[in-house]
Structures are given as structure tokens and as C-alpha cells.
User: What shape does this take?
Amino acid sequence: MILEVNEVKFGYNGKEILKDVKLSVDQGEMLVILGPNGVGKTTLLRCINAILKPRSGAIMVEGRDVLKMEPSAIARRIGYVAQYQAKTRMTAFDAILMGRKPHIRFRTSEKDLHMVDGAIKILGLEDLAMRHIDEMSGGELQKVAVGRALVQEPRLLLLDEPTSSLDLKNSMNILSLIQHVVRDHGVSAVMTMHNLNSALRFADKFVFLKDGMIHSAGAIKEVSEDMIQDVYGIPVEILHHKGRPLVVPLN
Amino acid sequence: MHLMHGAKHEEYSRYVGRKITLVFLGLAVLIGLSLISMSKGAASLPVREVAKALLGLDVARQCELIVWNIRLPQVLAAVVAGAGLSLSGAVMQSVLRNPLGSPFTLGISHAAAFGAAFAVMILGSGTMASSQVGAISISNPYLTTGMAFFFSMAASGVIVGISRMRGSTPEVMVLSGVALGALFTAGTMFLQFFADDVQLAAMVFWTFGDVGRASWSELGVLSIVTGLASVYFLLNAWNYNAVDAGDETAQSLGVRVQRVRILGMIMASLVTSVAVAFLGIIGFVGLVCPHMVRRLMGGDNRFLLPASMLLGAILLLASDTAARLILAPHLLPVSILTAFLGAPVFLALIIRGYAR
Assistant: This one.
């Protein structure tokens, strides 16, 4: 078991955002957290890597309690790709190299530079490595952010809406890439997403959040029309095209 | 996670090599400019003689006295203050993720000016003695310096305090700083309105930044504070890079963002406060030099911070040298020259766009 979230509660100003959330992820699995806007998906991701501290509950990564770990120790196990990326005056190489921060103090080693090279190759960013990221498109920037998370050598990747600002082609590219990393590099991934069709196509497992609670969870094949209608409040039909499920809203 | 593909990073190594070369080039320019600056003034000295005097070799007694007692402290004050102000600006811009972050825009300089005005008007340090050439000097410089330091640190204390209450987001810090700047400016104007001619002249005189003011002991304090702060800032260069990429990303990389931001602000304010208290208000250096470096070399703080220090030192030293020469034998306040020299270069960089 790579990740185990147990009875996690989170809230502020007397408002409960997450209520007794429970989920688990095995090695090489891709879990997608689904649910309407404002239901607490991003909050849950932030709790998993201790950016936010839950009121109660436990979050275990490889059997260790994240809430009792030093921030740099967490960063050596969990890579996080935020929804929005700041455009700074840095080359893509430097921005990805920053992912080695949890492993280095000041000087970078040959290993660090080789790892960045490796990530650039996996992401297909060879031609853009020395470009400044403030001159990059949303898709390229998102790839750089994934690269930064990869060179942290994480056991678990957290991705907050990784395709929210991307066009169709770039969305497919990024999700294929994440799927490739998860399958071929023994990493697990948890991501939040709004696009149900992408979720059904790429994830192994799902969790539906409703009112801060787990509404339903299971293997991606188990997603049903009733679940979607109950969570999002609109009727849908799940069609199958060339063996792939497609969610179609009915009104 | 297997990412080691044995790929090459030669292009990146060349890129880093270019940045290191630029830093050393900056250092060479600074040393050369320092020697030239020490040779210029009311009494012109050959650069060779200046170098010999600095190395303790045999030179005319008069030359030795001018170099060691007049020119060297002034040049060192310009170098250290320029480096410190520019470094503080670079750190403020990074931790606040705001291009307008600088001691001037965050109200710290305004607070120092209010402190000096307060000392002159309320505490009576403004009884003035006119020197033989008609220049104005403040009768109790230590009280004025002390109050300027106290109020600029108080301003940064308030910014940090508000940030602790409302969360240390860049917006909270910048807006608090802007509000404090306006408050202290109004306070200074209030004091000036009720001041007599002598007090008013003393207040205005203090606000003209002048690197010739610092004594050896003040220079020592300024150097120690700037030196220690620069070591601290350089050790945090990776943290500042991470904060630049956004709070969430920085936290996910193991950075304690609140602590890095607040300590960065406190240290930057300390360096600024000491410089402003001893030398008066020198604007522009802290705001513009880091931007120039960012445009020339990119935003990686491992190189941005030392290069900003060098450029700050070069700009202030060049301005001070020019200030001594333009209307000789009269001295122009250096703070006028920093803007005169820096602004056109900065505007040219904006028009030209980023270096590719």
C-alpha cells in the first residue's frame, strides 16, 4: 500500500470541508478524485501532502504518518503538481531542477542534472529545455511542472486538475504521460479532475466526493450513471465507443 | 523512479558557465571602477598611485591620506550600501513574488525619513551648524540615525505582524507596506508643515542620500550586517526559487514558506534600515538592479542574488563618482544620480525586452 487516508476531517471557521474521508492507493495505481466544484477535492490533495493539516485522521505514505514527517521528507516521497503554475523568469531546465531541492542543500550533483535530462526526455521537452518558462504555453508549462514533480523521485504523485487549462491534444498528451510514468516507473498517482471521460479513460480507480464525504469508490469500471446523476445532479448516459466509456449528459 | 538516461546537459552547463562568467566580469568591473572612483575628486590622483596606496607601497603622504581617510571609506560605503540595497530588493521581490518589492515601495525608507524628521523636530537634533562651504549638517547625527533605524525596523515589524495575523501572503505584505509608506509620508509632511526653516532644511538634507556620511565604525556595522545577510540569503537561494514558483509548489518541495518569507523580509529590512539610517534615502537601486539582472541572467536566485549585489554596488559607486564630478567642487546628492543613471538603462532594457 502506497497511500492510506483514514477518517480524515478538515475544516476552518467552523465549516467542515472534509468529513471522514477514507481511501487507499496501491503501487502503480492511478486514482481519480471526482466531484462538483467546491466539494473539497483540492483540499483533500493538499491534506495528503500536509500543505493543509487535517483536524483528525491519519495519512500514511508507505506506512509512515505524513503529519509527523518533516516537510523535506514528505517532498522526497510525494510530488505535487498544482493547478496553476507561476510563470517565472527561469529556463525549463532550471524549473525542473528545482524538483531536486528536497535532495540537495546548495550545490547540484551530476546525478541531479542527469535526472533532469531524463525527465526532459520522457516529457519530450528536449527542444524547450533552455527556454524561459514565462514564454511557454499552458501545456508546456504543465509538462515542466510534471517534470519537476518527477525528479523529486516520488513514490506518489498528486495532480490537481492537470488538464484544466489545456486543449484536447495537450490534455491527452499529459494524461498519457502520467499513465506511462505510473505504469512503467512504479509510481502511484492521485489526481482531481472535472472531465469524466478523461477520468474513465485513464484512471484505474475512482472516488466520488459529495458534500465533503466519500459518496462512492471503486474500480473505474464500476462508475455508474446513477452515481454521476446523484453526485452532479444531472442525468447522464454512459455509452461505449470502440470499447471506451463515454459519459453523455442527457439535458 | 528511473530517470537516468545518461543524457547530456551540455547546453545547460554552458548556460551556467555564462552566468558565472558574467558574475566574475561584474566583479572585475567593480574593482576597476573602485580604483577609478578613488582617483577622482577635488584632488585628482593617478590610478596607479591609488593602487599603490591601497597595497601599502611607498606613495606620497598626501595621496595616502586622501585614499585611506577620504576616498576609501566613501567608495566602500557606496559598494556595501549598493550591494545591500540591491540584495534586499532582490529578496523582497522574490519572497513577495512582486516586481515592485523594494525598501522604497514597502515604506521602509519612508519610515526612516519620518524617524529622521521626528529626531530633528521633536527630539531637537536639528539645531544646525553651517559649515564653511555653506552646507548643512545635523548637530546630533547619532540620534537622527538611531530614530531612522528605529522607525524603519518598526515599519517592517508592523508588516510582519500584520502578516502573522492575516497570513503571510504577498498581497498582505505589499499592501501593508504601501499603506505604511503613505502613513509615514503624511507624518513627515505633518512635521515639515510645523517646522521652522532650520528644522525643515535639516529634514530635507537628511533625506538626500549621501555615501560620504559613513564613518569607519558605521561602515563596519553596515558591512557586517550586509555580509551576514548575504550569506543567509545565498543559503536560501533554492528556497526563494521555490517560493517564486508559487506557495503551493514551494510547500510541496519541502519549503516552510511562511518562515522563509517572514525571515527574508526581516533580514532584508534590517540591511535596508542600517543603510538608510547611516546614509539617508537612496532609492531606485533596490528596485531596479534586481530587475536588470533578472532580464540579463534570468531569475535563478543562486546567480540573481550575487549578481544583484554586484550591479547595486556598481550603480551606486558610479553614481557617487559622477555626483562628485558633475558639478565639482559641489557635490550632488547621490540619490539623484542613481535614478538619472539607472532609469535610462532600465527603460532601454524594457524596450529591448528580455535577453534570449
Chain B touches chain A at residues 1-9, 11-13, 15, 97, 234-235, 237-238, 241-242, 244-246, 248-249, 251-256, 294-295, 298-300, 302, 354 (CB under 8 Å). The radius of gyration of chain B is 21 Å.
